[in-house]
Design brief:
Layout (H helix, E strand, L loop, with lengths): L8 H12 L3 H8 L3 H7 L3 H36 L5 H36 L6 H6 L1
Length: 134
Amino acid sequence: MSTNESFSRGQRAALTALMVTPSVRTAARTAGIGVSTLRRWLTQPDFQQEYRRLSRETHQQAVSAVLSAQQEAVSVLVRLMGSASSDARLRAASKLLDVGHRIAEDDLDQRLTRLEEMAEQQNLGAGPWAEAHG
């Protein structure tokens, strides 16, 4: 998470603190600056842009971490299906079926979206039916 070198040391510290603390007040304290100073910086377009960029980057890193952990979570569920406890087996099997259903649903949604885009590109959606129902 590197911040733009055009920012002062305090601004860079504030940007970093904003990424890891729950509030502007806590971020200001962590960065060693006043709350009013941080609020003023948050109104400046360059600071706002960098804050948004860092927020997106931080969010993407969190999403990547969750996606990476999914394989392990599935492995745990598969192992639980071999458990001696019928209750644990039932819960694991149910969870795997739910996840499988959601994956299939997402796949169908993506395929339908692609088909709709293709139809739109080829003007297959034109005509009396589309006009009456569109």
